[in-house]
Specification:
The chain is of the alpha/beta class. It is built from seven helices and twelve strands. It has a single domain (2-251), classed as Rossmann fold, CATH 3.40.50.880. Helices cover 31% and strands 30% of the residues. The strands form two sheets. The chain has a six-stranded mixed sheet with strand order 2-1-3-4-12-11. Strand 5 (102-104) and strand 6 form a beta hairpin. The longest helix has 15 residues, at 237-251. The protein binds glutamine. Glutamine (GLN) binds next to helix 2 and strand 8.
């Protein structure tokens, strides 16, 4: 099979190495002999979600979010249907905020979100910047551990946002913050998971040093196509070293 990745607004949303997430998905597939294709989709470009296995949307400043929101809204119906049908989505920071109800900027102006997830974001007075370690939520950990030859309980990344995101009571976070701010620096949560949609504040980029999470996304995407074959294990020594080094550096 061929893994088809859609990259939304790559020219507008690409902070702190976000594109590295695409490179990781491509490389980890190719190492396994799986062909890949990446479609870059920006304002006005057509996108047929029935031809996409993983959709990626990165982070950007308030300015960029404002520029693209009108175009994003035009895609709302199709995106919602695909998400309810199990499309795998990874959304980082600004992209994550746009999945929710709204993002209220510091002047009070609200950028509407897609409203798919019961979460909302309000700009705080202080930027939340730095390295982050997250302990994965139990079920998510179990799911990723089944797929990985070297299961990891944590995610590591870098955050830089002023938005504080709050999850409605029925939504699950990706995990609990062990170090850093995460969703809002108040309730200890980081990110969100809804069906196969993953939202997070972690840039860095996220996937190169979180190979277990990259493989979770790949597996979910393959599962959705009806492929039952498990992903072959890769030699992740370097990736795991990068992960553990960051955990140790941040936590000690
Ligand atoms: N504009 C958003 C904020 O500052 C998102 C920033 C980002 O994507 N890094 O909250």
């Amino acid at each position: 099979m061929k893994l088809k990745i859609g990259h939304l607004y790559p020219d507008l949303l690409d902070l702190y190495g976000d594109r590295g997430n695409i490179l990781t998905l491509v490389q980890r597939s190719q190492w396994r002999g799986i062909e890949t294709g990446v479609q870059r989709v920006s304002i006005g470009d057509s996108l047929d979600l029935s031809k996409i296995d993983i959709l990626f949307i990165g982070g950007g400043s308030d300015r960029e979010q404002n520029i693209l929101v009108e175009d994003l809204m035009k895609r709302k119906r199709e995106l919602k249907a695909a998400i309810e049908d199990g499309l795998v989505v990874l959304a980082i920071c600004g992209g994550y905020q746009l999945l929710g109800q709204y993002y209220q900027m510091s002047g009070g102006k609200k950028i509407p979100g897609l409203g798919f997830l019961d979460l909302w974001t309000e700009a705080g007075s202080k930027r939340l910047i730095g390295n982050v370690v997250v302990k994965l939520e139990g079920r998510l950990y179990e799911q990723s551990a089944q797929l990985s030859s070297s299961p990891l309980e944590t995610l590591v990344g870098f955050e830089n946002h002023s938005g504080k995101t709050f999850l409605g009571k029925d939504l699950q976070p990706l995990g609990q913050v062990l170090h850093g701010n995460g969703n809002n620096s108040q309730d200890g949560t980081e990110g969100v998971r809804y069906k196969n949609v993953f939202g997070t504040y972690l840039h860095g980029p996220l996937l190169p040093k979180n190979p277990h999470f990259a493989d979770l996304l790949l597996s979910l995407a393959f599962e959705r196509t009806g492929t039952t074959k498990k992903l072959t294990a890769l030699d992740d020594q370097l990736e795991l070293l990068a992960h553990q080094t960051m955990v140790q550096r941040i936590m000690t």
